[in-house]
Amino acid sequence: MKSRWLQLRPRQQSLILAAVVVVLLLAAAQLSEAKLSRSYYASTCPNVEALVRGVVTQKLQETFNAAPGTLRLFFHDCFVRGCDASVLISGPGDEHSAGADTTLSPDALDLITRAKAAVEARCANTVSCADILAIATRDVVSQAGGPLYPVELGRLDGKVGTKAVVKHSLPGPGNNLDQLNKLFATNGLTQTDMIALSGGHTIGVTHCDKFVRRLYPFKGAKPQYSPPMNLAFLRQMRGTCPLNYSPTTVAMLDAATPLKFDNGYYQTLQQQKGLLSSDQVLFADRRSRSTVNYFAANQTAFFDAFVAAMAKLGRIGVKTGSDGEIRRVCTKVN
C-alpha cells in the first residue's frame, strides 16, 4: 500500500489528501449533528422534561403571554447565533436589554429562568439553557393546543450575546416573499418550512409600529408594497392604533383564536386580515398561496409541517465542544 502511494505523482497525492480532508470534515459535521438525541439526558437527568413541563404549566396558569413569548425566544435564538441560548444573555449590548428588539417577552424570560432553577436543583450543571428553551417551547405550543412533538437534545450554550447581529438575522414585518425565502434558505429552511413556522403567529401579539404603515398613507415616506387588507379590519385596526398610538399598544396577530395554537392564522390570511405585511404576503403571492390554503383547510397538515420545521430549526448552529458551555445562570456566561 505504501509503495503504491509513493508511485503516485505529487498532484495525485494532493487530490487524494484533499478528498480525505473533505470526507473527515463531513464526518465531523455529521458527528456534531448526531450529538443531538431525544434521549441525551436519559442517564444524567432523566426527569428534565417533566421538570420543565411543570414550570411551563404553572407559568401559563399565571399568564398566557409566556406561550407566544417563549416560541418567539426560541425562533430568535436559533436564527441569530444558532440554538445556543445566546438570546437570553442580558447586560449592556444584548437583545432584550438594549433595544435591538424590545418585544422579547419578560414572561418568557421568567419562565426559562424558573425552569433552569428547577432543573439545577435536581441535575446541577448538566442541562444547557439552550435545551431547556427547546423543551419549554415544545411544551408551550402543546399546552396552547398545538402538537406535542419529541425534542432533540444535547446543545451547549453560547458565550456571546446577540445585539451585534440580531437586526441582520431576523425577518422583518415588511419583507416580501423573496426576502423571506432568502433569509430562511440561509438557515437550511424551505419555503414550506417558512410558511409553517410563520403559523406560530396563531398566538401572540405585535406592536403598532410593526404594521402602522399598512393603516395610514405617510406623506413623504418611501412607498412600500403592502398586500391588500380587509376594509372592515383596516378600520378596526385604525381604532386600535390611531396616528398617535402608544408605543406599548399591541394587537393580536390572529384575531380569530389568539389564545389557541391552531390553523386560524392561515384562515385570517385568506380573509386579508393579516396584520404584518410579511404575513399577508404569504397569501397575496401566488407562489405561496396554495400552501396557505392547504394549511387553512387541514390543521393536521399544518401541525405536521410545523413539527418538521421546528426540528430543522432546532439544529441550526448547535454548539459543541469548546464552542459552548452549560451556563449556571441562563442570563449570563459562566
UniProtKB/TrEMBL annotation:
It is found in: Secreted. The record marks 72 as: Transition state stabilizer. Keywords: Calcium, Disulfide bond, Heme, Hydrogen peroxide, Iron, Metal-binding, Oxidoreductase, Peroxidase, Pyrrolidone carboxylic acid, Secreted, Signal. It is an enzyme of class 1 (oxidoreductase). Belongs to the peroxidase family. Classical plant (class III) peroxidase subfamily. Belongs to the peroxidase family. Ascorbate peroxidase subfamily. Ca(2+) 1 binds at residues 77, 80, 82, 84, 86, 95. This is Peroxidase.
